[in-house]
Amino acid sequence: MPVYYSLTLFTCAVMSIVLSLVLLGVTIRQDESLKKYRSARWCLCAAFVAFGIANMFQAGMEYDGKQEALTGVMMIFIGSVQAVMFTMLALIFIRPAIVTVRRVLLQLSVVFLVSASLFIARFTFPLSAFYVVYYVCILGYVALMAAYTWLFVRSYKVFQKQMMDFYEEEELLYRMRWIKWIFWSALAVGILALLLIIDNHMVNVLLTLLFTAYFLFVTVSFINYQQYAQLIVRAYESETHVSQQSAEKEKMSQAEVEKIRAGISEWVREKKYVESDHSVEEIARQLGTNSTALRKYFHNYVGEDFRTWRIGMRIEEAKRLIDENPSIKINDVVNLTGFNDRPYFYRIFTKMTGMSVTEYRNGEGHTIKKKG
User: Fold this and answer.
1) Does the CA dihedral 158-146-141-184 come out positive or negative?
2) Which end of the chain is least crowded, N or C, by CB within 10 Å?
3) Yes or no: is domain 3-237 CATH 1.20.1070?
4) What is the largest CA-CA distance in the chain?
């Protein structure tokens, strides 16, 4: 067995175990909204340790050319466990209520039973019969990934709607885009794991390195999730309330319209539109109304939704800051206008003004104004 093969597998095994220890050392707030997040940490640690032990086993195994089938069995087992664990992790991030211990254990039990049966079949069935069962399991593995993809896509659409209904803040979703990356990168790694069917040391090494890099990404993402947990749970728990409010059909009186108009004028004067991570209901309360009436007001009297209007106000504020101080740092503009993500700010600024921030700063925006 090549030295580089054993050394790489052993190093990655140690790294995965170290990452599990890093996760165990993370301080998680004693918050009810983070209950499943705390449980997910133990599952992740178990997955990392299992991966590490499997790599140590492979690194120390004498290879005589007859282990191709066993490597394939291990691929099905490890890949399926990872598919379960990382799909459930992604779902915990966006829709924690649909992930239960019973559901996770049931799926893992099926994976263990199938893998154990396949392992036993390797030593009891004729090789030709074993390979028939083996390739059927490969198809089952592909079907599992397809099913999890469908589940995640459907759940993510619900998540997007809930977040937009509750916050009317597109940038918040943009800041959480790494949640999608966790799942899609796990899917990509899972598909590439099928290459382990090829009995090649270099392929095994490259995939092991890829898995380890993915584990590092997941660890960092898991640690960063705490800052978004309450925002997500609040939106999820409010789903019924928001739906009921949206269904209300009461008409707005003129007095109510004037009250909202006056409240918005004061809200704009105080530049409240640069504050972020507030729900629409919280903003409506600041204006002395509710989210349903606020949405109706913008639809009927402003001609655009609240989200688009607020982004427009923020962009106008950004333009004002640049006009008054052309040398101002873009990071300062981003922070002072309620944006929290610089790439998102650049994208929205270009979309709404028709030019990049740099072009506007260099005076092209002023030239257009003068021509107008």
Assistant:
1) negative
2) C
3) yes
4) 85
List, for residues 109-156, the tens digit of each pLDDT value: 988 898 888 888 888 888 888 888 888 888 888 898 899 999 999 999
Query: Cα 343 vs. chain centroid, distance in angstroms?
Result: 17
pLDDT of 94 strictly over 80? yes
Single-letter amino acid, residue 17: I
The length of the chain is: 372
Check: CB of residue 163 under 8 Å from CB of residue 172. yes
The pTM score is: 0.78
CATH architecture of 304-372: Orthogonal Bundle (1.10)
Which pLDDT does position 240 carry in this prediction? 41
Distance of alpha carbon 98 from alpha carbon 4, whole angstroms: 43
Do 3-237 and 304-372 fold alike per CATH? no
* Whether 37 contacts 225, CB under 8 Å: yes
Q: Is 29 helix (H, G, I), strand (E, B) or coil?
A: coil
- Kindly write down the DSSP assignment for every residue of 286-303, as one continuous string: HTTS-HHHHHHHIIIIIS
